[in-house]
Design a protein that fits this description.
alpha+beta; phage-related protein like fold; 7-stranded mixed β-sheet; 6-stranded mixed β-sheet; 7 helices; about 25% helix
Length: about 350
Amino acid sequence: MAVDLITLDNGILYEGKWGEILDAYVSETIKQNELLEDHKQYKALLDYTDTTLLNPDQKFSSRTPNGGLKGITETGIKTNREFNFGPKKGLSQREIWEKFDMSYLMTQWAKKAQNLKGAPEGVQAELVQISDQARDLVQGYDITFAEEMVKNLTLGFSVTAAEGPGAASARDWLSLFNASHELKDGSTFTNVVSGAAYTDVATGQAQLQVALDALKTMKFDNGKKIRQPKGEAYKLYCSRVKETFWLEVINEGSDKAGTGNNSAKKNTFSFKNNLVEVVVLDLLGDTDTDGNTIGTDSMFFVTNPKAVRDMKAFRSASLYSARVKTFENDETDVMSTSIRAIIWVGAYDAEFCVTGGTWIA
């Protein structure tokens, strides 16, 4: 029996009503969870927080954690708690949609047949092709979502958008990576590592230490130091091209490869008493769907993963689940299958828990 609208086990919605043979084949193809590996992987690697969107125009505000509780005064009156919420920052939704068409012969067979018995050879061959095409649509959605997550970092060196990747921080309206981030008391701090281009390991060690020191000395507007990871490694993100370089940097400055449960992990090291994990972002330096390069192979980023999670510094969401639909095109009289989704990523107070640089030759 043909389906109307079903939610598959990977959260994708599928809508079809054009016959059992086609609907069952497409839905069975796209329900496989391994189709969504890319954005799930990057969500975990970059410590993104899933966010529920209530409406398309929703805005979020940052919040500085407060201090302890004040004592009761002689009057016995309790002090009202002060909450330090920052300015509200909107979200940038990106709507993506693509489709593929089937042949007129396949369209007619799908409308009438329940199985492939007696089907022309061309129909059987096209049905296999439809499976590949359906998978490709879902993988395209998956890849685009992952690309947006990485762009939240790579586009952070200048303000190029009002919302989403490349947007300014709502706190001081400066780029994510900036040497003059402002606090309410007028003081400034930096989360960008700069310097002349180089490839030698010794300078790499010095600059990595600069990045770690910046993370450790950051404070909120209320003067409280940002909590650092305990028993968890700082994350150093780099491209596949620069992985060997960064492993050499950390190995050279390590007294041992990890500690405790981390001792067997190849990419986790104790770098000058700082536990650091090298995380490769394969999309870094790649070309995206629009033909633009995602950052450069030379970019690197260091995060305090505990703070990223606690502050929900990187957020992602879908206004609705990706929707795959099979329909008849009135203009061509053939069946089409499309995928449509609205995705969103954003950075909120991420300047307090991530440093970045682009200075490797």
